[in-house]
């Protein structure tokens, strides 16, 4: 199973690498303009959804001309793919350095608290910025779905790395499966974020994360 997951992750990451390689060919000013367009598109798509965001909306928000926008993105689909990469980076960066410390129950609880705090600061709006894109695109755009798979896999692998470290140190029972636990924790998180968005309060998110951490704790030696 590890080999299959790693193969899928590597395949999806190749697309992200291609995007970043294209960025590297730009001048400093070109990179800044492209980054401003992507950030503007990400903000609008998070607030309004993909379907509710037009290329013209992005142009106005980024304060660029139509020719500038189309120089970097030939069509909206290309811009959406760039937004997925951008939002993945934003989500993972927002959780650092906590994501690199998920190798203890204390670290997992600190990460849990930070996730809850972020939703409160956002006033429970938007849910998961990657998850919201997945809801809009996974069934209709195969290329977007591949990018989303890569984004979620980066998140899952970060969680799995911490649990694997606990397992390798002998802190988790031999029958614990770090891969399964990491996937379950990320899946639970996504459901909790969705219900928190709908209910406008964090009790669903807290409940599901607490339940998952309690489950992981049952494997502690």
Structural description of this entry:
With 221 residues, the chain is mostly helical. 76% of the residues lie in helices and 0% in strands. It contains 10 helices and no strands. It has helices at 2-24, 28-48, 55-62, 66-72, 76-94, 105-121, 129-137, 142-168, 178-199, 203-217. It is elongated, with a radius of gyration of 19 Å. Pfam families: TetR_C_13 (PF16925), TetR_N (PF00440). Residues 31-91 form the HTH tetR-type domain. Residues 54-73 bind DNA.
Number of strands: 0
Amino- and carboxy-terminal Cα gap: 25 Å
Average pLDDT for all residues: 91
List the secondary-structure elements in sequence, H or E: HHHHHHHHHH
H/I helix tally: 10
Rg (CA only): 19 Å
Backbone structural class: mainly alpha
State the low-pLDDT regions, or none: none
Helix content: over 70%
For the sheet with most strands, the description reads: none
Strand content: under 5%
Shape: elongated
DNA-binding region: 54-73
InterPro entries: Homeodomain-like_sf, HTH_TetR, Tet_transcr_reg_TetR-rel_C_sf, TetR_C
Keywords: DNA-binding, Transcription, Transcription regulation
Protein name: TetR/AcrR family transcriptional regulator
């Amino acid at each position: 199973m590890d080999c299959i997951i790693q193969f899928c992750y590597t395949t999806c990451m190749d697309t992200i690498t291609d995007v970043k390689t294209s960025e590297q060919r730009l001048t400093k000013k070109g990179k800044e303009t492209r980054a401003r367009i992507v950030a503007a598109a990400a903000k609008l798509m998070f607030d309004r959804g993909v379907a509710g965001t037009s290329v013209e909306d992005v142009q106005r928000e980024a304060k660029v001309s139509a020719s500038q926008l189309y120089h970097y993105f030939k069509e909206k689909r290309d811009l959406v793919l760039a937004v997925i990469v951008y939002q993945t980076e934003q989500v993972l960066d927002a959780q650092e350095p906590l994501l690199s410390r998920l190798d203890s129950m204390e670290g997992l609880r600190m990460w849990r608290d930070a996730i809850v705090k972020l939703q409160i600061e956002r006033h429970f709006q938007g849910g998961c910025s990657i998850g919201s894109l997945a809801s809009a695109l996974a069934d209709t755009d195969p290329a977007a779905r591949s990018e989303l798979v890569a984004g979620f896999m980066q998140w899952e692998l970060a969680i799995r790395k911490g649990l694997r470290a606990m397992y390798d140190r002998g802190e988790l029972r031999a029958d614990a499966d770090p891969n399964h636990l990491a996937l379950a924790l990320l899946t639970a998180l996504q459901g909790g974020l969705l219900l928190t968005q709908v209910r406008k309060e964090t009790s669903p998110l807290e409940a599901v994360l607490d339940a998952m951490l309690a489950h992981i704790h049952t494997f502690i030696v």
